[in-house]
Amino acid sequence: MKSSLNAARRTRELESLGREPVDVLVIGGGVTGVGVALDAAARGLSVVLAEKHDLAFGTSRWSSKLVHGGLRYLASGAIDIAHESAVERGILIDHTAPHLVSPFPQIVPLLPQVSRGHAALVQAGFLAGDALRLSAHTSHHTLPPSRRISGQEVLRFAPTVRTSGLRGGLLGWDGQLYDDARLTIGIARTAASLGARVLTRCAGEQVTGHGAVLRDQLTGDSYDVDARVVINAAGVWAGQVAQGIELRPSRGTHLVLSQESFGGLSAGLTVPVPGSTSRFVFALPASGHRVYVGITDEDAPGDIPDVPLASEQEIDFLLETMSSVLRWPLTRADLLGTFAGLRPLLHTGGDSTADISRRHAVITAPDGLVTIVGGKLTTYRRMAEDALDAALAASGTSAAPCSTRRLPLVGAASRDALATLAAPDRLVRKYGTEALAVAGDVDHAQAICEGTETTAAELAFAVRHEGALDEDDLLDRRTRIGLDPILRTRALDAARAALVLP
Ligand SMILES: Cc1cc2nc3c(=O)[nH]c(=O)nc-3n(C[C@H](O)[C@H](O)[C@H](O)COP(=O)(O)OP(=O)(O)OC[C@H]3O[C@@H](n4cnc5c(N)ncnc54)[C@H](O)[C@@H]3O)c2cc1C
Predict the structure, then answer these.
(1) Beta strands 202-208 and 211-216: pairing type?
(2) How far is the CA of 235 from the centre of ligand 1 (A)?
(3) Cis omega before residue 486 (within 30°)?
């Protein structure tokens, strides 16, 4: 497959570096960087993307995995960002990744701690969300309008919600990703199918507007790459790649729990944070029979860790706030794991990171190096378009206009076509049309260990086609087994075995 990423292709493409200048060099293989690589390759440009670790190694695997309609931006008056988010949500859900992005119900149970005034505010927000959906031309067949629901309906979606004082609930719809790391990998493979050289374990050093030294992290070898256009998409590390970029990272933490702790949750369960009208804690049903509970927003100054860690206070805050609406409080014994990510927010001098705009920023240095930071996963496509347009203009390079609005990612098909695929639903949601190839590998169809449905066929596919080079890639990004550390230990042998399959 032209979209296949694997060790052999990586070696070949590393060897080809430096022979002639490339049109576009991208530093960073998070969702933003791979978005730029895809946009550039789709415009017919030659592309090299260098990622220091693995695809989605950074923030792009630690998100809430929501494809937002932009409601929270509306609350702060940023109508343009809200509209942009709603448009990009529609593109992902209807055209570019219907396999990975699904319509997602979210409920707010109306319990005594939510006053009638507060409930009216939340309802007004949901109605504004409906208006945003309409303005983005997303059909109500895809995302139904919000509505008030009965207490019984609340309990059908969220069986463990407190019943005493429950006077019904509010229901709204948004988009949910099967998994954020998999979206990033899907975009990278689509770029690769159009000829982009996507090189993991390859760090960008001495990055300028005209090229960089790329260092192979596996061998230490270095390659001088000249480029017409260079784009720094290194997320929270962007300030280490380009001078003059100052970020103010903010940490967001999630808890990982089993569906059993929620009695089978089938909607996002949203709980207003006491004392705030704009902050919420939510429980999100996730793949692998899990529920993620998030989210916090904590200033995270100082050195940037490769893998950020949740603080004890954040864990307590999330458990307590979510428990306030449940019949049986959650405790630390319910935790399978935690994860935390750093938002790459631009330093704007404000008091709190929660107040910093989530608007993305494109910054062009005097030598033409373009840095793209901020924004969010939902708007990666638009961020890529803006960054590439700016870089092409700065370098005087001409290219075809952006065409990614209607460019399906590998595995994408219409929702109707996906529904007819002869493969298990779980695989269709993860792989789209490629589920047929994974399900067809009958020799490796057994689950790899107790506690997961992941099969050896999925690991083999990740090694052959999705660029997995070691067990971390397999367990922490191609699958999300690693979010449960005990399960991760159990799955290690299977991951090692997949790496040496013929
Ligand atoms: C807790 C949390 C929840 C979120 N939830 C949502 C959500 O539900 N929906 C949504 O739309 N958005 C969400 N976001 C925002 C979204 O996740 C981020 O905006 C997005 O993932 C940032 O992607 P990125 O590619 O810019 O950065 P990253 O994903 O961090 O990618 C940067 C990459 O650059 C690489 N790199 C660094 N230095 C170098 C170098 N010198 N050479 C080569 N490579 C290098 C890193 O290894 C990394 O892989 C959330 C963010 C957080 C923190």
Answers:
(1) antiparallel
(2) 5
(3) no
CB 50 within 8 A of CB 156: no
State pLDDT tens for residues 189-221: 999 999 999 999 999 999 999 999 999 999 999
DSSP H or E run through 254: strand 250-258
User: Closest Cα to residue 186, out of 43, 47, 56?
Assistant: 56
Q: Both tokens of residue 145? A: 């309008």
Tell whether ligand 1 has an atom less than 6 A from the beta carbon of residue 358. Answer: no
Q: Encode pLDDT of 132-186 as tens digits.
A: 999 999 999 999 999 999 999 999 999 999 999 999 999 999 999 999 999 999 9
Q: What is the mean pLDDT of the chain?
A: 95
What does DSSP say about strands 360-364 and 222-232: parallel, antiparallel, or unpaired?
Answer: unpaired
- Radius of gyration of the chain, Cα coordinates, nearest whole angstrom: 22
- Rounded-to-integer distance, Cα 35 and Cα 385, Å: 8
- 374 Cβ below 6 A of ligand 1: no
> Using CA positions, which residue lies closest to atom 19 of ligand 1?
376
- Element of type H or E holding 118: helix 116-135
DSSP code per residue over 394-428: HHT---PPP-GGG-PPTT---HHHHHT-SS-HHHH
Q: Which of 17, 27, 60, 382 to mutate to test the pocket of ligand 1 (most atoms within 8 A of CB)?
A: 60
Q: Look up residue 273 and give its amino acid.
A: V
Whether this prediction's pTM lies above 0.85 is answered by yes
Name residue, tokens 């999330």.
Answer: 318
Alpha-carbon distance of 327 to 310, in angstroms, equals 26
